[in-house]
Structures are given as structure tokens and as C-alpha cells.
Amino acid sequence: MIRVLIADDQALLRGSFRLLVDLAGDCTTVGEAGTGVEAVALTGQHRPDVVLMDVRMPEMDGIEATRRICADPATAGTRVIILTTFDLDEYVYGALRAGASGFLLKDTPPADLLAGIRVVAAGEGLLAPTVTRRLIDEFARRAEPTRPLPRHLDGVTEREREVLTLIARGLSNAELATRLNLSPATVKTHVGRLLTKLGARDRAQLVIVAYETGLVGPSGLR
Questions:
Q1: What is the pTM of this model?
Q2: How far apart are CA 105 and CA 111, in angstroms?
Q3: Domain 139-221, CATH 3.60.15.10 — does that match?
Q4: 22 contacts: CB under 8 Å, gap ≥ 6
Q5: Average pLDDT value for residue range 186-214
Q6: Cα angle 21-22-28, degrees, rounded to a multiple of 5
């Protein structure tokens, strides 16, 4: 069973998400939090596999709660999905930097929400949807000009940089295999090596590395 914690300051939304999760068959809700402080505390208590995290909550926002959860060795194995709306787009990049494994819009269809929970619980990042590519493109537009690649990318091969660039565009492993004419197993190997070499938790963190090192910029994310 995938153990899920729901953090949102609206009780009605928490109840709706809980019902959806508990009826999925392979997921179960282990707790509900109405504030960021509660989210951090309950994550430490229950060690869920996935936290559905609202951004705007009292006492502590979802980004800071995510940062604390991901920075704590005791809860570092918990994956965080940020729940956002279009008027909160400016928070998405900060959430990914804080350690979130991806994000979903609050009006995401139920089946897609459950699919997202399963993907993140399996160690992947929610980076394929078009909305994700658009949002990260927007953050890149606001950033400082591309700078020389730092030394910590020196150990990354040209093929791996190519894979990293495509991951930053939101391509899935299957799409990478098609684009690069590689087998799925080979793509998985490249992604695994990138995670290890760059010390990244998942694909979401690889996008941040690709952006912050200057490997990709606004034009490279389209």
C-alpha cells in the first residue's frame, strides 16, 4: 500500500482527497494536516510514502514544510507532491528546489491524481505534463543569464548531458528512447547514472540541476 499524508488548510478538500485515496485500492491515507507545521510533524510521525502538499497554509507554507521534510534524514524518503493552482505558479520552482518531486493542479482529474501518487511513490518525478514544461520555462525566463557549466558537470558524459537536457524538457523514458534511438533499458541506465552523479533525488531534481547549471535555458525548455 502507498501511504499518503494530505496537507491542506481546507477541510473539505482534505476530505475529498482522503476519500479518493482510500478508495484507490493500493493507497491509504495515514493522516491529515491543516498547517505546514502539522505537515512536518505528521510526516515525522507516520513516515508516509507521499505527501500531497498545499502551498498556502497557515503557520508555515508548503514550500518551507517541503524543505524541512526533504532535509531531515528521518523523512528524506518521503516524496512530496505540491498541489497548486495557476495563480500560484510563482511558487513551483521554489517547491522543486525545496525537494518536491513534482506538482499537480488542484483540478487534476481523480485518475490523474492517483496516477501521480503512484509515479512519485515509485521514485519518478511529475515532469511530463505540458503545464510543467510551461511553468519551468517561465522560471527560466526570469533567471539570470546562462553561465558556464560548473565543474560538478565535468563527470557527465555528452550522452548524459543530452539525456539531461531532454529530461528538462519533460520527456519520459519512453520518449527519450524514441528521440535518441536507444533501448528503454539503456535510457534507464543513463537516468540512473545522472541521479547518482548529480546527487539528485529524482527527475524533478534533475530538471533543477539542468536549469541551475546553465545546461538549459528558456529556449532549451520549449
A1: 0.73
A2: 13
A3: no
A4: 28, 29
A5: 84
A6: 85
